[in-house]
C-alpha cells in the first residue's frame, strides 16, 4: 500500500528519525493520530445497530473517523475513508 501526503497512515516527523531530540509536542508527532484510539478500542463484540444481521461482528476500524469498532454494515457509511480490518490468527491480534 502506498502512503501519500493525504493518507492517515503518514506520520509527520521533524528533525530526523523517531526517538530523536526532544521538542514540544514530539509525542504527538511520533505516532499517527488514530493509533491511540485504535489501541483503546474493543473489537469482536456484536454491533448494537445491526444486531439482527449475521455480519454484525465489529472487526473494522475507520482511520479517518476514529470513532470505535465497526461491523461490515456500519463500514458502508465510510466508503471513501481509510479503513482496516482487525483479525485474530493463532491467538494473536493482527491488522489487515
UniProtKB/TrEMBL annotation:
Domain of life from the UniProt record: Eukaryota
Protein name as annotated: B box-type domain-containing protein
Organism: Leersia perrieri
